[in-house]
Amino acid sequence: MTLIRKRRVWELPGSSITKEELAFDRRAAMKLLGASAAAVLTGCYRTVEGVPSVAITGPCLDVPSGNPWGERMDASRNEAYSVPERAITEEQQAKRYNNFYEYSTSKEGVCRLVHGLPIAPWTIRVSGLVQNPGDYGLDDLLARMPLEERLYRLRCVEAWAMTIPWVGFPLSDFIRLVEPLSNAKYVRFVAANEPIVMPGVQASPQLPWAYHEALRLDEALNELAFLATGMYGRPLPVQNGAPIRLVVPWKYGYKSIKAITELELLEELPSTFWPTASSEYEFFGNVNPEVPHPRWSQANETIIGPNEVVPTQLFNGYAELVAHLYV
Ligand code: MTE
């Protein structure tokens, strides 16, 4: 495995980020500073009374700066993972309605603020209780992991849902490559934390950046846990977690961490972002219609697009594959 040290944003050659892009991010960051601090304190965000909406203008970016993979990232569909009862969410909706607090609390604003994040070269630093620690270059990983497409339901804790065709490979393949030691019990993930190009990080210093998440090792080895590098047959846009994100479809969306830069195997339960920020969230985050969020019911969910309200399914419809993990 090639060792590549990831350059931080401020080490990139000046040509990688245009003056306009930086200027745009600074302007947006200034607006965010004033408008959204109160909203961010409320945790995984839902409309909060009295918080003015933030006007973020500028084009959305679907092809990340420095994208080395071109327009397409095709893979054959693995039909074992389908969502027969729902239509696929429109591609533009999945790429225009995002939760990515490093950029903004405005779901429609995120895709307009992602211009500055360079996604290549990208490495994931693997540490902790593993046989093979080190920096794993994403290109090397992509060369050795066969890609497949899987259709998964995505259920946000805020009670909205989408159905998305992800392209990527099982998380278990990566974990087996790094070889956990026998005392490893948890896998911790850390996201990119680049305040210079992430106005939401600057705007919300009270949040416990970098965004970090974790799974129990048996959850991480479950066949459903997936590392996505693409969606809709194209490389992931930054707003959806480029260049690599986790997808854990039986859990609320906050577990599916974007822009992963670190993976650590641990014996003790690590802290995670939302439960650290707010007592309204807990470690497991398993979708359960019978356990309401402190501020709203989880009995139903709204499908983005048709805006249809349907009953929430236990484990987001994946009980058959995951219920045994929790007995
Ligand atoms: N990952 C990072 N790094 N930062 C975030 O703010 N938000 C989470 C998750 N992953 C988030 C993140 C939440 S709350 C949700 S619902 C999903 O991303 C949304 O993914 P999407 O924007 O691709 O639909």
Description:
- With 327 residues, the chain is of the alpha+beta class.
- The chain is 18% helix and 20% strand.
- Strands 3, 4, 7, 8, 9, 11 and 12 form a seven-stranded mixed β-sheet that branches. The protein has a five-stranded mixed β-sheet with strand order 2-1-10-5-6.
- The chain is globular.
- Mean pLDDT is 87; it is low at 1-43 and 46-54.
- The chain binds ligand MTE.
Brief description of this entry?
With 327 residues, the protein is of the alpha+beta class. The protein is built from 9 helices and 12 strands. The radius of gyration is 19 Å and the shape is globular.
**Radius of gyration, Cα only, in angstroms?**
19 Å
- Taking the alpha carbons of the first and last residues, their distance comes to 38 Å
Could you spell the SSE succession in H and E letters? HHHEEHEEHEHEHEEEEHEEH
> How many strand segments?
12
Report on the biggest sheet.
7 strands, mixed
List the helices and strands and how they pair.
Elements: H1 19-35, H2 37-40, H3 91-94, E1 123-128, E2 134-137, H4 138-144, E3 148-155, E4 160-170, H5 171-178, E5 186-191, H6 199-203, E6 212-216, H7 217-220, E7 226-231, E8 234-235, E9 245-247, E10 260-266, H8 273-277, E11 300-303, E12 308-311, H9 319-322
Parallel strand pairs: 1-10, 4-11
Antiparallel strand pairs: 1-2, 3-4, 4-7, 5-6, 5-10, 7-8, 7-9, 11-12
This protein binds ligand MTE.
The site of ligand MTE has 17 residues, from loops.
